[in-house]
Amino acid sequence: MDKVELILMNISGLDRPGVTSALTEILARHDARILDIGQADIHHSLSLGILFRTSPERSGDILKDLLFKCYELSVKIRFTPVSVEDYEAWVSRQGKNRWIITILGRQLTARHIALVTDEIARQQLNIDGIQRLTGRMPLDADEEPQSKSCVEFSVRGNPLDLNAMRGRFLQLAQQEEFDISLQEDNVFRRCRRLICFDMDSTLIETEVIDELAERAGVGDKVRAITERAMRGEIEFCESFRERVALLEGLDERVMREIAENLPVTEGVERMMQVLKRTGYKTAILSGGFTYFGNWLKQKFGFDYVYANELEIVDGKLTGRYLGDIVDGKRKAELLRIIAQVENIDIAQTIAVGDGANDLPMLATAGLGIAFHAKPKVKQTARQSISTIGLDGVLYFLGFKDSFIAS
What we know:
alpha/beta; seven-stranded mixed beta sheet; four-stranded antiparallel beta sheet; 15 strands
């Protein structure tokens, strides 16, 4: 190889149109070869880095022209020589794993970022990039109850102990009251296509069977069974049969009244608008009832609804159900079936739920997210959201507020 010089130039200063164009034009004029380039703008402050290759005969003229141009543009420039050995070592690390670490909450503090980046450093991972996914924060954000803040880290390398890293992130999320997602940055993360949701306590802020039970005068009995099931103390199918039997004699009109007043979870409408606009297929896979799932489908445009059908005779609930029960195992099966029908690789699927009967679905999907979940579910699922609304899912997919609002 002919003798070459590798030079890293770092430019900083007030951002303005034309800076990158002017500097790269100089490199082009001297036939320099750009090996790497990156740029960021933080509050109108430019940070630009360019690694280029040239010959020793030309390097002096290039540096002189760059210095004069930066003086004209009122920006600072710094040059750092890079050895061929260091460059080749950098190239050899190209195949190392890449990870996306997303942190979000109502407010993110310097402490949150310090704790997360400390663990990244402990695992000997290198941060390649940091970006804010949420919009610009107003100074009075602390007074806004629906505020949200999200920062995404792109990191490279192989963690020393991946399980320990996941455990530490789970511990931090619980202690510091913010959410952390750790995902491998692979081709599937960038092209998710199907997202399946539990309904009760996920898409809506209630358990519909509890609402029905209140109207039937058996609320305490049904709630007690529901809690045992969600904690995983009894099988879902057994609990379902017991609860439905207690609804015998309830008037069908009660279902319509409840549907018209369902408390929809914060962020559902915003999330569904973005998912539909970007071509995602969406499904409700619920251990609840089709009547309410179909109401949500009509309101928000879900593509699929699979839930349980209550038997109604002469306008009254019989205390029985029709067909097979949609339990945890069935949810996972339905996720696979829908993916097959839509010709979607299972790694391109997402599942979101809160209860023990959602765990098979969360484990089957390429990305499983526990949403405001019970402790057992949170500890089992690899990703969780507990601090903000359901539109937090969008940040785990890499969406920025600037895109969402466009």
